[in-house]
Design goal:
- About 80% of the residues lie in helices and about 0% in strands.
- The chain is an all-alpha fold and about 325 residues long.
- The protein has one domain (about 5-325): Orthogonal Bundle (ABC transporter involved in vitamin B12 uptake, BtuC).
- The two termini are about 25 Å apart.
């Protein structure tokens, strides 16, 4: 068994352990007997409801959003050749926020599923706008062009969002809770949008060979039969699907899409055929663990998972920056 396969199996085992701990720990800690009863022979007891209807849905949401963000972050860092790039740089988070506050300002507070659909639509529209403008340069969207256009679209959306929330108290309240990032309300959306995760994962894995070639340069990639436009378009589709799904399920989770690719590259090396599945497992594991920590650190309440990820991610990234003078993507 190769070291890379062993690493994937260890990460998968870690995800399995995180699922068990997430079902075990909530605002209170269930006993092993209660956990077994809820999973194998539920009969409507309070512990059954807590485990099956509260902890299980948020665990699934954390796993899906974490895996999607991990893969999306890896793809965007690879395609832009920027080790500090993340999905937020494509305007995805601010596009989702703009879609939500624009509607809430006129209609008032909305159900969670409606907010999810608006977030998905806004995220997809912002990403497509960035890549559409970025391709005008005729080179299939060069890394520097995508980053500049992404920064411009992000700033534009953020400015409009700020103007709207100044004029609408309902929009301000909705944005305040949504922007923190949480996995509490995303399960119903996941039941409808899981094909997006499957499609995004397939596209990401299919993009691995092209991304490996592009790292060598466009001329080298062309000699290997890889067209830059085709590879970047495939990457675009995967990034849009995965990032849009993640922001829909859990809101704008900062740092995860930035942090996970670095961890995966340190484990699996420079081959994206291994980095991408490794990033999916790392992202799922980190977000699930962060959700559990959020429940434990503020009992009987809880910390939003976005806050916990920021607390974990910032020190780690400072450590990486101090230990390594350069990062290769």
């Amino acid at each position: 068994m190769t070291p890379r396969i062993s690493s994937l199996l260890i990460l998968a085992a870690g995800v399995g352990a995180a699922i068990g701990i997430s079902l075990w720990i909530g605002s209170t800690t269930s006993s092993f007997a209660e956990l077994r009863h809820a999973l194998l022979a539920p009969d409507g007891q309070v512990s059954d409801i807590a485990i099956r209807e509260i902890r299980w849905p948020r665990t699934v949401t954390a796993l899906a959003a974490g895996a999607a963000l991990g893969m999306a972050g890896t793809l965007i860092q690879g395609h832009t050749r920027n080790p500090i790039a993340e999905p937020g740089l494509l305007g995805i988070n601010q596009g989702a926020a703009l879609a939500i506050v624009s509607v809430v300002a006129f209609t008032g507070p909305l159900p969670a599923w409606t907010q999810a659909l608006l977030a998905l639509g806004g995220a997809l529209a912002a990403a497509l706008l960035v890549f559409g403008i970025g391709r005008i340069d005729g080179r299939g969207g060069s890394p520097i062009t995508l980053l500049l256009v992404g920064a411009a679209v992000t700033a534009l959306c953020a400015g409009v969002v700020s103007a709207i929330v100044l004029l609408s108290e309902a929009a301000l309240e909705t944005l305040r809770f949504w922007q923190v990032g949480s996995v509490v309300q995303g399960y119903e959306s996941f039941l409808s949008l899981w094909p997006l995760l499957v499609a995004g994962t397939v596209l990401a894995l299919a993009n691995a060979r092209g991304l490996n070639a592009l790292i060598l340069g466009e001329d080298s990639a062309r000699s290997l039969g890889i067209t830059a436009l085709h590879a970047r378009s495939l990457g675009l589709a995967a990034i849009v699907a995965l990032s849009g799904l993640a922001v829909t399920l859990a809101g704008p989770i900062a740092f995860l899409g930035l942090l996970v690719p670095h961890i995966s590259r340190r484990i699996f090396g420079a081959d994206y055929r291994w980095i991408i599945p490794g990033s999916a497992l790392c992202g799922a594991l980190l977000l699930c663990v962060a959700d559990v920590l959020g429940r434990m650190l503020a009992r009987p309440g809880e910390l939003p998972v976005g806050v916990v990820i920021a607390m974990l991610g910032a020190p780690f990234f400072i450590y990486v920056a101090r230990r390594r003078k350069a990062v290769t993507v």
